[in-house]
């Protein structure tokens, strides 16, 4: 693989700092440890490549997590290859699916304005600036609603006060 062009040092540091979160997410997606490593590395390489191509990425973590989900889809064997009665080779990702279902149900119980913003985050991976553009709300309003929504979600999902709610999005 050819060497990728350099990107700004601060952006490179932020991207490298995302690696542990990408790896944890890859493992939560049900990947074996070596497959999780490969998926996280592929996601980082894809984001780095896009940055080196001059693509402006507003929400680096959201973009990287989307790249990881796409890498996970590519790594998963297609269900169509299974014959009726065949069991999948990999264990089901039931715990991750249940966590996702719990998070989505908790979002549904938020006040309507907070729930609407959180659904946009889940569906599009939008960051704060993108939410401002999509909704036409002021930046402070978006930030406030997201902060209150995250506090409520952490409480409902029994997460630590500083825990990232973003880890629950699939």
From TrEMBL:
Q: Which residues form the RNA polymerase sigma-70 region domain?
A: 18-75
Is the keyword NAD assigned to this protein? no
Instruction: Give all residue intervals belonging to the RNA polymerase sigma factor 70 region 4 type domain.
Output: 104-153
Q: Which Pfam families match?
A: Sigma70_r2, Sigma70_r4_2
Keyword Thylakoid in record: no
Q: Which Gene Ontology terms of cellular component type are present?
A: DNA-directed RNA polymerase complex
Q: Which UniProt keywords apply?
A: DNA-binding, DNA-directed RNA polymerase, Sigma factor, Transcription, Transcription regulation
- Show the coiled coil region(s): none
Task: Please give the SUPFAM superfamilies that the UniProt record associates with this protein.
Answer: Sigma2 domain of RNA polymerase sigma factors (SSF88946), Sigma3 and sigma4 domains of RNA polymerase sigma factors (SSF88659)
Q: What protein family does this chain belong to?
A: Belongs to the sigma-70 factor family. ECF subfamily.
Which PANTHER family does the record associate with it?
Answer: RNA POLYMERASE ECF-TYPE SIGMA FACTO, RNA POLYMERASE SIGMA FACTOR HI_1459-RELATED
State the protein's name. Answer: DNA-directed RNA polymerase specialized sigma24 family protein
What is the originating organism of this protein? Rhodovulum iodosum
């Amino acid at each position: 693989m050819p060497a990728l062009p350099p990107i700004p040092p601060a952006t490179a540091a932020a991207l490298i700092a995302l690696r542990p979160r990408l790896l944890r997410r890859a493992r939560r997606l049900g990947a074996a440890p070596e497959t999780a490593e490969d998926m996280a590395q592929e996601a980082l390489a894809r984001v780095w490549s896009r940055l080196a191509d001059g693509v402006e990425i507003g929400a680096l973590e959201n973009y990287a997590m989307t790249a990881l989900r796409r890498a996970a889809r590519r790594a998963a064997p297609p269900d169509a290859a299974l014959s009726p009665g065949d069991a999948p080779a990999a264990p089901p990702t039931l715990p991750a699916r249940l966590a996702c279902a719990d998070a989505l149900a908790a979002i549904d119980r938020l006040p309507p304005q907070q729930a609407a913003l959180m659904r946009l985050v889940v569906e599009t991976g939008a960051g704060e600036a993108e939410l401002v553009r999509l909704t036409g709300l002021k930046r402070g309003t978006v930030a406030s609603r997201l902060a209150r929504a995250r506090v409520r979600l952490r409480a409902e999902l029994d997460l630590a006060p500083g825990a990232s709610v973003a880890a629950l999005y699939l």
